[in-house]
Design a protein that fits this description.
- This is Putative glycoprotein hormone-alpha2.
- It comes from Ixodes scapularis (Black-legged tick).
- Keywords: Signal.
- InterPro entries: Cystine-knot_cytokine, Glyco_Hormone_Alpha.
- This protein is an alpha+beta fold and 122 residues long.
- Helix content is 22%, strand content 54%.
- It has one domain: Cystine Knot Cytokines, subunit B.
Amino acid sequence: CRTSTNSWRSLLLFWSLVKPERIFGSVRAATKSGHTRRVSIPDCVEFDMTTNACRGFCTSYSIPSPEYTLRMNPNQGVTSFGQCCNIMDTEDVKVQVRCLDGHKDLTFKSAKSCSCFHCKKN
């Protein structure tokens, strides 16, 4: 099993010296895309609303943890990096809707800019 230990250490050394982006490439594309949906509000006329959403793909990868990470946390054998397609800025889209009690002014949020950014866990 000594050979597999040496191979594992060589692989860890390799990953600690080389940036994974150089091997995997930095493939990223997060773009605005129109998203239309039917809006139904009680006692108002239904209408279709188009706002911008973000869609695309961003870089993610997992590598064997470098030596310094293993020293701090021996149980973390793998280090992962991931980015997700995110809305970075929004703008308001205002509409006027006809309702039984008159007109209502509504505001919807729409994506103004999109980018690859760290993924959030909620």
